[in-house]
Design goal:
The protein has about 500 residues and is an alpha/beta fold. It has helices spanning about 100-105, 145-155, 165-180, 190-205, 225-240, 250-265, 280-295, 300-310, 315-325, 340-350, 365-375, 385-390, 435-445, 470-480, and strands spanning about 15-20, 20-25, 40, 45-55, 65-75, 85-90, 115-120, 185-190, 210-215, 270, 275-280, 420-430, 450-455. The strands form three sheets. It has a nine-stranded mixed β-sheet with strand order 3-4-5-7-6-8-9-12-13, sandwiched between helices. Helix 6 crosses helix 8 and helix 7 packs across helix 9 (about 315-325). The longest helix has 17 residues, at about 250-265.
Length: about 500
Amino acid sequence: MKLISKSTGMLVAGLAAVTAGGLVAVPAGHAGTPQEATAGCVPVSGAVCGTVRVPLVRANPGLGDTTVAYALIEHRDTSRPARGTVTINPGGPGDSAIASAATYARMFGGLLQDHDLLLVDPRGVNRSDPVSCGTLTSLPATREAFVQAVGECGQKLGARARGYTSAEIADDIDAVRAKLGIRRLDLFGESYGTYLMTVYAQRHPERVRSLVLSSAYPLAVDMWGRPNARAARRALQLVCQRSAGACDGDQVLRDIAQLSQRLRARPIPYTLGGQERRLDDTALASIVYGLAKTAPAGIGDVPAMVRGALHSDNALLVDAAKQAAPLSGSSLPQDDPQPFNPELAATVVCNDYPTLWNRKAPTSARLRQFSAGRAALPEQDFWPFGKRAWTSMSYDQGNTCIRWPDRHGPSQPTGGPFPDVPVLVTSGDLDANTPTETGRQAARQFRRATVVEVPNVGHVAEHEPSGCVAAVQTGFIRNLRVPDTSCLAHIPPAPVRP
Protein backbone atom coordinates (compact mmCIF):
# COMPACT_ATOMS: atom_id res chain seq x y z
CA MET A 1 0.00 0.00 0.00
CA LYS A 2 0.80 2.63 0.36
CA LEU A 3 1.47 6.18 1.37
CA ILE A 4 3.90 5.02 4.03
CA SER A 5 6.10 3.34 1.49
CA LYS A 6 8.04 6.29 0.07
CA SER A 7 9.27 9.71 1.06
CA THR A 8 8.42 13.14 -0.20
CA GLY A 9 11.44 13.25 -2.51
CA MET A 10 12.06 16.06 -4.97
CA LEU A 11 9.19 16.78 -7.32
CA VAL A 12 10.01 17.44 -10.95
CA ALA A 13 8.08 20.40 -12.33
CA GLY A 14 6.77 19.55 -15.78
CA LEU A 15 7.96 16.91 -18.19
CA ALA A 16 11.66 16.50 -18.86
CA ALA A 17 13.84 14.02 -20.68
CA VAL A 18 17.27 12.95 -19.44
CA THR A 19 19.83 13.30 -22.20
CA ALA A 20 23.59 13.49 -22.38
CA GLY A 21 23.27 17.24 -22.12
CA GLY A 22 21.17 17.18 -18.94
CA LEU A 23 17.46 17.93 -18.49
CA VAL A 24 15.71 18.95 -21.69
CA ALA A 25 12.11 20.15 -21.58
CA VAL A 26 9.68 18.12 -23.69
CA PRO A 27 6.61 20.03 -24.91
CA ALA A 28 3.17 18.56 -24.38
CA GLY A 29 1.35 17.00 -27.31
CA HIS A 30 -2.15 17.88 -28.46
CA ALA A 31 -5.09 16.71 -26.40
CA GLY A 32 -5.66 13.01 -26.91
CA THR A 33 -2.56 12.51 -29.08
CA PRO A 34 0.95 11.33 -28.19
CA GLN A 35 3.86 13.69 -28.40
CA GLU A 36 6.61 12.73 -30.83
CA ALA A 37 8.67 10.01 -29.20
CA THR A 38 11.95 11.06 -27.60
CA ALA A 39 14.87 8.64 -27.37
CA GLY A 40 17.46 8.69 -24.59
CA CYS A 41 14.91 9.90 -22.05
CA VAL A 42 15.78 7.37 -19.32
CA PRO A 43 19.13 5.71 -18.58
CA VAL A 44 18.12 2.47 -20.32
CA SER A 45 18.95 1.44 -23.87
CA GLY A 46 16.04 1.06 -26.26
CA ALA A 47 13.81 3.53 -24.43
CA VAL A 48 11.60 6.17 -25.99
CA CYS A 49 9.37 8.59 -24.14
CA GLY A 50 6.32 10.64 -24.92
CA THR A 51 3.19 12.18 -23.48
CA VAL A 52 -0.54 12.22 -24.06
CA ARG A 53 -2.97 14.97 -23.11
CA VAL A 54 -6.11 13.75 -21.37
CA PRO A 55 -9.03 15.41 -19.57
CA LEU A 56 -8.38 16.05 -15.89
CA VAL A 57 -11.85 14.70 -15.09
CA ARG A 58 -13.30 12.78 -17.99
CA ALA A 59 -16.83 13.32 -16.72
CA ASN A 60 -16.25 17.09 -16.52
CA PRO A 61 -14.15 18.30 -19.48
CA GLY A 62 -14.56 21.89 -18.35
CA LEU A 63 -11.90 21.34 -15.68
CA GLY A 64 -9.24 21.20 -18.40
CA ASP A 65 -6.53 18.74 -19.39
CA THR A 66 -3.42 17.23 -17.88
CA THR A 67 -0.24 15.65 -19.29
CA VAL A 68 0.57 11.97 -18.79
CA ALA A 69 4.14 10.88 -19.50
CA TYR A 70 5.34 7.43 -20.47
CA ALA A 71 8.56 5.58 -21.24
CA LEU A 72 8.52 2.53 -23.51
CA ILE A 73 11.57 0.26 -23.17
CA GLU A 74 11.65 -1.89 -26.27
CA HIS A 75 12.59 -5.58 -26.28
CA ARG A 76 16.19 -6.39 -27.10
CA ASP A 77 15.75 -9.18 -29.65
CA THR A 78 14.90 -6.97 -32.60
CA SER A 79 14.81 -9.91 -35.03
CA ARG A 80 11.19 -10.55 -34.12
CA PRO A 81 8.20 -8.65 -32.70
CA ALA A 82 7.70 -8.39 -28.96
CA ARG A 83 5.81 -11.27 -27.37
CA GLY A 84 3.95 -8.81 -25.18
CA THR A 85 4.07 -5.57 -23.21
CA VAL A 86 4.40 -5.44 -19.42
CA THR A 87 3.34 -2.25 -17.64
CA ILE A 88 4.55 -1.77 -14.06
CA ASN A 89 3.39 0.61 -11.34
CA PRO A 90 5.62 0.87 -8.22
CA GLY A 91 2.88 2.00 -5.84
CA GLY A 92 2.70 4.78 -3.31
CA PRO A 93 0.24 6.08 -4.39
CA GLY A 94 2.48 8.82 -5.67
CA ASP A 95 5.56 6.91 -6.86
CA SER A 96 7.08 7.51 -10.29
CA ALA A 97 7.27 4.51 -12.61
CA ILE A 98 9.63 6.28 -15.00
CA ALA A 99 12.09 7.05 -12.19
CA SER A 100 12.39 3.29 -11.62
CA ALA A 101 13.20 2.50 -15.26
CA ALA A 102 16.79 1.40 -14.63
CA THR A 103 15.76 -0.74 -11.65
CA TYR A 104 13.06 -2.55 -13.58
CA ALA A 105 15.22 -3.01 -16.66
CA ARG A 106 17.87 -4.65 -14.48
CA MET A 107 15.42 -6.72 -12.42
CA PHE A 108 13.54 -8.02 -15.45
CA GLY A 109 16.41 -8.09 -17.93
CA GLY A 110 15.52 -11.61 -19.08
CA LEU A 111 11.94 -10.62 -19.77
CA LEU A 112 13.13 -7.62 -21.81
CA GLN A 113 14.69 -9.97 -24.33
CA ASP A 114 11.30 -10.46 -25.96
CA HIS A 115 8.86 -8.23 -24.02
CA ASP A 116 8.46 -4.47 -24.11
CA LEU A 117 8.23 -2.61 -20.81
CA LEU A 118 5.81 0.31 -20.53
CA LEU A 119 6.21 2.75 -17.63
CA VAL A 120 3.55 5.43 -17.12
CA ASP A 121 3.97 8.16 -14.51
CA PRO A 122 0.61 8.57 -12.77
CA ARG A 123 -0.99 11.96 -13.27
CA GLY A 124 0.25 14.37 -10.62
CA VAL A 125 3.64 12.65 -10.25
CA ASN A 126 7.12 13.47 -11.57
CA ARG A 127 6.84 13.91 -15.36
CA SER A 128 3.03 13.83 -15.42
CA ASP A 129 2.13 17.38 -14.37
CA PRO A 130 2.98 17.23 -10.62
CA VAL A 131 0.08 18.33 -8.46
CA SER A 132 0.58 20.43 -5.34
CA CYS A 133 -1.75 21.77 -2.72
CA GLY A 134 1.05 23.25 -0.57
CA THR A 135 0.06 21.65 2.73
CA LEU A 136 2.08 18.41 2.73
CA THR A 137 5.41 19.49 1.26
CA SER A 138 6.85 18.98 4.74
CA LEU A 139 5.24 16.42 6.98
CA PRO A 140 3.79 17.49 10.33
CA ALA A 141 5.12 16.01 13.55
CA THR A 142 1.78 14.87 14.99
CA ARG A 143 -1.15 12.80 13.82
CA GLU A 144 -3.60 15.61 14.46
CA ALA A 145 -1.59 18.07 12.37
CA PHE A 146 -1.25 15.55 9.55
CA VAL A 147 -5.00 14.90 9.38
CA GLN A 148 -5.60 18.66 9.42
CA ALA A 149 -3.11 19.14 6.56
CA VAL A 150 -4.81 16.46 4.44
CA GLY A 151 -8.15 18.24 4.86
CA GLU A 152 -6.60 21.58 3.91
CA CYS A 153 -5.08 19.95 0.82
CA GLY A 154 -8.55 18.94 -0.35
CA GLN A 155 -9.86 22.45 0.27
CA LYS A 156 -7.09 24.05 -1.79
CA LEU A 157 -7.46 21.65 -4.72
CA GLY A 158 -11.22 22.10 -4.79
CA ALA A 159 -13.03 20.48 -7.73
CA ARG A 160 -9.70 19.56 -9.36
CA ALA A 161 -9.11 17.00 -6.59
CA ARG A 162 -11.63 14.75 -8.33
CA GLY A 163 -9.15 14.26 -11.17
CA TYR A 164 -6.74 12.30 -8.99
CA THR A 165 -8.33 8.87 -8.64
CA SER A 166 -7.19 5.36 -9.46
CA ALA A 167 -9.95 5.18 -12.08
CA GLU A 168 -8.62 8.24 -13.93
CA ILE A 169 -5.04 6.94 -13.65
CA ALA A 170 -6.12 3.54 -15.01
CA ASP A 171 -7.85 5.26 -17.93
CA ASP A 172 -4.63 7.24 -18.55
CA ILE A 173 -2.68 3.98 -18.84
CA ASP A 174 -5.25 2.76 -21.32
CA ALA A 175 -4.97 6.01 -23.30
CA VAL A 176 -1.22 5.41 -23.61
CA ARG A 177 -1.83 1.78 -24.60
CA ALA A 178 -4.28 2.84 -27.31
CA LYS A 179 -2.00 5.50 -28.76
CA LEU A 180 0.90 3.05 -28.93
CA GLY A 181 -1.29 0.46 -30.65
CA ILE A 182 -0.81 -2.22 -27.99
CA ARG A 183 -3.62 -4.77 -28.02
CA ARG A 184 -3.27 -6.23 -24.51
CA LEU A 185 -1.11 -5.62 -21.45
CA ASP A 186 0.48 -7.81 -18.81
CA LEU A 187 -0.19 -5.77 -15.67
CA PHE A 188 2.38 -5.68 -12.85
CA GLY A 189 1.57 -3.81 -9.66
CA GLU A 190 3.66 -3.34 -6.53
CA SER A 191 1.93 -2.34 -3.27
CA TYR A 192 -0.61 0.40 -4.18
CA GLY A 193 0.12 -0.60 -7.77
CA THR A 194 -1.80 -3.84 -7.05
CA TYR A 195 -4.85 -1.72 -6.23
CA LEU A 196 -4.36 0.42 -9.35
CA MET A 197 -3.89 -2.54 -11.67
CA THR A 198 -6.98 -4.21 -10.20
CA VAL A 199 -8.92 -1.04 -11.00
CA TYR A 200 -7.49 -1.12 -14.55
CA ALA A 201 -8.60 -4.75 -14.90
CA GLN A 202 -12.03 -3.79 -13.59
CA ARG A 203 -12.40 -0.96 -16.12
CA HIS A 204 -10.63 -2.46 -19.15
CA PRO A 205 -10.95 -6.25 -18.82
CA GLU A 206 -10.60 -6.93 -22.54
CA ARG A 207 -7.14 -5.30 -22.52
CA VAL A 208 -5.62 -7.58 -19.85
CA ARG A 209 -3.57 -10.68 -20.65
CA SER A 210 -2.34 -11.41 -17.09
CA LEU A 211 -1.68 -9.76 -13.73
CA VAL A 212 1.19 -9.96 -11.26
CA LEU A 213 0.25 -8.41 -7.92
CA SER A 214 3.21 -8.01 -5.58
CA SER A 215 2.40 -7.12 -1.97
CA ALA A 216 -1.29 -6.96 -2.73
CA TYR A 217 -4.43 -5.84 -0.98
CA PRO A 218 -8.06 -5.88 -2.14
CA LEU A 219 -10.19 -2.94 -3.25
CA ALA A 220 -12.24 -3.45 -0.08
CA VAL A 221 -9.29 -2.74 2.23
CA ASP A 222 -9.79 -2.90 6.02
CA MET A 223 -9.21 0.72 7.05
CA TRP A 224 -8.79 -0.28 10.72
CA GLY A 225 -5.61 -2.19 9.78
CA ARG A 226 -6.54 -5.39 11.60
CA PRO A 227 -4.82 -7.73 9.10
CA ASN A 228 -1.69 -5.60 9.47
CA ALA A 229 -1.69 -5.98 13.26
CA ARG A 230 -2.03 -9.75 12.90
CA ALA A 231 0.80 -9.76 10.36
CA ALA A 232 3.11 -7.77 12.64
CA ARG A 233 2.61 -10.33 15.41
CA ARG A 234 3.20 -13.17 12.96
CA ALA A 235 6.34 -11.58 11.52
CA LEU A 236 7.99 -11.30 14.93
CA GLN A 237 7.03 -14.88 15.76
CA LEU A 238 8.51 -16.13 12.47
CA VAL A 239 11.75 -14.17 12.90
CA CYS A 240 12.26 -15.69 16.35
CA GLN A 241 11.31 -19.22 15.24
CA ARG A 242 14.02 -19.00 12.58
CA SER A 243 16.63 -17.35 14.81
CA ALA A 244 18.19 -20.53 16.27
CA GLY A 245 17.17 -19.43 19.75
CA ALA A 246 18.28 -15.79 19.55
CA CYS A 247 14.82 -14.63 20.61
CA ASP A 248 11.48 -15.95 21.80
CA GLY A 249 8.51 -14.58 19.86
CA ASP A 250 6.01 -14.77 22.71
CA GLN A 251 8.37 -12.91 25.03
CA VAL A 252 9.08 -10.23 22.42
CA LEU A 253 5.36 -9.58 22.03
CA ARG A 254 4.90 -9.36 25.81
CA ASP A 255 7.82 -6.93 25.98
CA ILE A 256 6.23 -4.76 23.27
CA ALA A 257 2.94 -4.72 25.16
CA GLN A 258 4.72 -3.61 28.36
CA LEU A 259 6.76 -0.95 26.55
CA SER A 260 3.68 0.31 24.70
CA GLN A 261 1.85 0.91 27.99
CA ARG A 262 4.89 2.67 29.43
CA LEU A 263 5.28 4.97 26.41
CA ARG A 264 1.59 5.80 26.42
CA ALA A 265 1.99 7.14 29.96
CA ARG A 266 5.52 8.54 29.61
CA PRO A 267 6.58 9.32 26.02
CA ILE A 268 10.30 9.73 25.34
CA PRO A 269 11.25 13.17 24.00
CA TYR A 270 13.79 13.33 21.17
CA THR A 271 14.92 15.80 18.53
CA LEU A 272 14.82 15.27 14.78
CA GLY A 273 15.94 17.94 12.35
CA GLY A 274 15.80 20.54 15.09
CA GLN A 275 12.18 19.65 15.88
CA GLU A 276 11.07 18.33 19.26
CA ARG A 277 9.16 15.05 18.94
CA ARG A 278 7.52 12.50 21.24
CA LEU A 279 8.15 8.78 21.04
CA ASP A 280 4.87 7.38 22.35
CA ASP A 281 2.96 4.11 21.93
CA THR A 282 1.75 5.14 18.48
CA ALA A 283 5.30 5.86 17.36
CA LEU A 284 6.37 2.46 18.71
CA ALA A 285 3.66 0.74 16.65
CA SER A 286 4.79 2.70 13.61
CA ILE A 287 8.44 1.72 14.10
CA VAL A 288 7.69 -2.02 14.42
CA TYR A 289 5.30 -1.84 11.45
CA GLY A 290 7.94 -0.13 9.34
CA LEU A 291 10.66 -2.61 10.27
CA ALA A 292 8.39 -5.51 9.28
CA LYS A 293 7.85 -3.77 5.96
CA THR A 294 11.59 -3.47 5.24
CA ALA A 295 12.39 -7.02 6.37
CA PRO A 296 14.78 -8.71 6.48
CA ALA A 297 16.66 -5.46 7.20
CA GLY A 298 15.89 -4.11 10.66
CA ILE A 299 13.21 -6.44 11.94
CA GLY A 300 15.81 -8.54 13.76
CA ASP A 301 16.66 -5.47 15.85
CA VAL A 302 13.21 -5.34 17.46
CA PRO A 303 13.83 -7.82 20.31
CA ALA A 304 16.99 -6.04 21.51
CA MET A 305 15.47 -2.58 20.92
CA VAL A 306 12.42 -3.31 23.06
CA ARG A 307 14.35 -5.22 25.72
CA GLY A 308 16.84 -2.38 26.06
CA ALA A 309 14.10 0.25 26.41
CA LEU A 310 12.45 -1.75 29.17
CA HIS A 311 15.79 -1.61 31.01
CA SER A 312 16.18 2.16 30.56
CA ASP A 313 18.49 1.92 27.53
CA ASN A 314 16.60 3.85 24.85
CA ALA A 315 19.47 4.19 22.37
CA LEU A 316 18.24 1.65 19.80
CA LEU A 317 14.62 2.79 20.12
CA VAL A 318 15.42 6.48 19.67
CA ASP A 319 17.73 5.68 16.77
CA ALA A 320 14.92 3.73 15.10
CA ALA A 321 12.58 6.68 15.64
CA LYS A 322 15.04 9.06 14.05
CA GLN A 323 15.32 6.81 11.02
CA ALA A 324 11.58 6.17 10.67
CA ALA A 325 10.59 9.77 11.53
CA PRO A 326 7.16 8.74 12.83
CA LEU A 327 4.47 11.22 13.69
CA SER A 328 3.03 10.46 17.01
CA GLY A 329 1.58 7.73 14.87
CA SER A 330 3.08 7.23 11.39
CA SER A 331 6.19 5.96 9.63
CA LEU A 332 7.44 7.68 6.49
CA PRO A 333 11.12 7.44 5.56
CA GLN A 334 12.55 10.84 4.72
CA ASP A 335 15.46 10.12 2.39
CA ASP A 336 14.13 8.02 -0.48
CA PRO A 337 15.65 9.39 -3.68
CA GLN A 338 12.70 8.52 -5.91
CA PRO A 339 10.31 11.25 -7.01
CA PHE A 340 7.26 10.81 -4.80
CA ASN A 341 4.31 13.13 -4.30
CA PRO A 342 2.64 12.85 -0.87
CA GLU A 343 -0.06 15.36 -1.90
CA LEU A 344 -1.09 13.17 -4.82
CA ALA A 345 -0.99 10.18 -2.46
CA ALA A 346 -3.32 11.80 0.04
CA THR A 347 -5.72 12.83 -2.74
CA VAL A 348 -5.93 9.32 -4.22
CA VAL A 349 -6.41 7.76 -0.77
CA CYS A 350 -9.17 10.21 0.17
CA ASN A 351 -10.94 9.79 -3.16
CA ASP A 352 -10.68 6.01 -3.44
CA TYR A 353 -10.35 4.08 -0.21
CA PRO A 354 -13.32 3.02 1.94
CA THR A 355 -14.09 5.29 4.88
CA LEU A 356 -14.94 4.54 8.51
CA TRP A 357 -17.67 7.20 8.45
CA ASN A 358 -20.40 8.42 6.12
CA ARG A 359 -18.69 10.37 3.32
CA LYS A 360 -21.73 12.61 2.95
CA ALA A 361 -21.75 13.61 6.62
CA PRO A 362 -20.24 16.87 7.91
CA THR A 363 -16.93 16.68 9.75
CA SER A 364 -18.49 16.84 13.21
CA ALA A 365 -20.64 13.80 12.48
CA ARG A 366 -17.71 11.97 10.89
CA LEU A 367 -15.64 12.49 14.04
CA ARG A 368 -18.40 11.00 16.18
CA GLN A 369 -18.83 8.04 13.83
CA PHE A 370 -15.12 7.27 13.78
CA SER A 371 -14.83 7.49 17.57
CA ALA A 372 -17.81 5.21 18.06
CA GLY A 373 -16.45 2.70 15.55
CA ARG A 374 -13.06 2.58 17.22
CA ALA A 375 -14.59 2.31 20.69
CA ALA A 376 -16.47 -0.81 19.56
CA LEU A 377 -13.30 -2.60 18.40
CA PRO A 378 -11.90 -5.30 20.72
CA GLU A 379 -8.60 -4.13 22.21
CA GLN A 380 -7.23 -7.65 21.80
CA ASP A 381 -7.38 -7.36 17.98
CA PHE A 382 -4.47 -4.91 18.14
CA TRP A 383 -2.36 -6.48 20.89
CA PRO A 384 0.46 -5.87 21.75
CA PHE A 385 0.19 -2.30 20.43
CA GLY A 386 -3.25 -1.09 21.57
CA LYS A 387 -6.07 -0.12 19.22
CA ARG A 388 -5.64 3.66 19.55
CA ALA A 389 -1.93 3.42 18.79
CA TRP A 390 -2.31 1.02 15.87
CA THR A 391 -5.24 2.85 14.23
CA SER A 392 -3.34 6.15 14.49
CA MET A 393 0.00 5.14 13.04
CA SER A 394 -0.80 4.69 9.33
CA TYR A 395 -0.75 7.48 6.78
CA ASP A 396 -3.47 5.88 4.66
CA GLN A 397 -5.76 4.15 7.16
CA GLY A 398 -7.70 5.21 10.23
CA ASN A 399 -8.91 8.82 10.24
CA THR A 400 -6.50 10.21 7.62
CA CYS A 401 -9.28 11.53 5.37
CA ILE A 402 -11.85 12.45 8.01
CA ARG A 403 -11.49 16.17 7.22
CA TRP A 404 -11.46 15.71 3.42
CA PRO A 405 -13.98 18.33 2.30
CA ASP A 406 -15.58 16.62 -0.73
CA ARG A 407 -18.78 15.04 0.56
CA HIS A 408 -20.11 14.01 -2.85
CA GLY A 409 -16.96 13.04 -4.73
CA PRO A 410 -16.09 9.93 -6.74
CA SER A 411 -16.48 6.51 -5.17
CA GLN A 412 -14.35 3.54 -6.21
CA PRO A 413 -16.42 0.33 -6.57
CA THR A 414 -14.94 -2.60 -4.69
CA GLY A 415 -16.60 -5.38 -6.68
CA GLY A 416 -16.19 -6.93 -10.12
CA PRO A 417 -16.60 -8.21 -12.63
CA PHE A 418 -12.90 -8.78 -13.20
CA PRO A 419 -11.31 -10.47 -16.22
CA ASP A 420 -10.89 -14.23 -16.21
CA VAL A 421 -7.13 -14.21 -16.75
CA PRO A 422 -4.17 -15.80 -14.94
CA VAL A 423 -3.12 -13.88 -11.82
CA LEU A 424 -0.03 -14.32 -9.64
CA VAL A 425 0.05 -12.79 -6.15
CA THR A 426 3.40 -12.69 -4.33
CA SER A 427 3.61 -11.80 -0.63
CA GLY A 428 6.52 -11.62 1.80
CA ASP A 429 5.76 -13.59 4.95
CA LEU A 430 7.32 -10.86 7.16
CA ASP A 431 5.38 -7.98 5.55
CA ALA A 432 3.00 -6.18 7.91
CA ASN A 433 2.21 -3.49 5.33
CA THR A 434 0.50 -5.72 2.75
CA PRO A 435 0.57 -9.14 4.40
CA THR A 436 -0.21 -12.50 2.87
CA GLU A 437 -3.68 -12.28 4.40
CA THR A 438 -4.56 -9.25 2.27
CA GLY A 439 -2.79 -10.85 -0.69
CA ARG A 440 -5.17 -13.80 -0.43
CA GLN A 441 -8.09 -11.38 -0.25
CA ALA A 442 -6.83 -9.70 -3.42
CA ALA A 443 -6.46 -13.08 -5.11
CA ARG A 444 -10.08 -13.98 -4.34
CA GLN A 445 -11.19 -11.11 -6.60
CA PHE A 446 -10.12 -13.26 -9.58
CA ARG A 447 -11.10 -16.76 -10.71
CA ARG A 448 -7.61 -17.94 -11.67
CA ALA A 449 -5.25 -16.55 -9.05
CA THR A 450 -2.31 -18.24 -7.34
CA VAL A 451 -0.68 -16.92 -4.16
CA VAL A 452 3.04 -17.50 -3.62
CA GLU A 453 4.28 -16.60 -0.14
CA VAL A 454 7.97 -15.65 -0.04
CA PRO A 455 9.81 -16.56 3.18
CA ASN A 456 12.06 -14.17 5.11
CA VAL A 457 11.25 -10.96 3.24
CA GLY A 458 8.88 -8.04 3.73
CA HIS A 459 7.37 -5.63 1.24
CA VAL A 460 7.66 -6.03 -2.58
CA ALA A 461 9.56 -9.30 -2.41
CA GLU A 462 11.04 -9.14 -5.92
CA HIS A 463 13.56 -6.60 -4.65
CA GLU A 464 15.27 -9.31 -2.56
CA PRO A 465 18.86 -9.67 -3.78
CA SER A 466 18.91 -13.28 -5.04
CA GLY A 467 16.64 -12.58 -8.02
CA CYS A 468 14.54 -15.66 -7.19
CA VAL A 469 11.21 -13.85 -6.86
CA ALA A 470 11.71 -11.78 -10.01
CA ALA A 471 12.52 -15.01 -11.87
CA VAL A 472 9.27 -16.60 -10.66
CA GLN A 473 7.32 -13.55 -11.79
CA THR A 474 9.12 -13.52 -15.14
CA GLY A 475 8.31 -17.19 -15.73
CA PHE A 476 4.67 -16.56 -14.93
CA ILE A 477 4.39 -13.67 -17.40
CA ARG A 478 6.08 -15.72 -20.13
CA ASN A 479 4.02 -18.89 -19.80
CA LEU A 480 0.92 -17.88 -17.79
CA ARG A 481 1.62 -20.45 -15.11
CA VAL A 482 3.67 -20.46 -11.92
CA PRO A 483 7.13 -21.89 -12.61
CA ASP A 484 9.35 -23.85 -10.23
CA THR A 485 9.61 -21.97 -6.92
CA SER A 486 12.22 -24.12 -5.17
CA CYS A 487 14.69 -21.21 -5.10
CA LEU A 488 12.50 -19.54 -2.44
CA ALA A 489 13.77 -22.07 0.11
CA HIS A 490 17.26 -20.59 -0.17
CA ILE A 491 16.33 -17.04 0.92
CA PRO A 492 18.08 -16.71 4.31
CA PRO A 493 16.25 -15.77 7.53
CA ALA A 494 16.46 -12.26 8.96
CA PRO A 495 19.46 -11.80 11.26
CA VAL A 496 18.57 -11.09 14.89
CA ARG A 497 20.60 -8.61 16.95
CA PRO A 498 21.97 -10.34 20.06
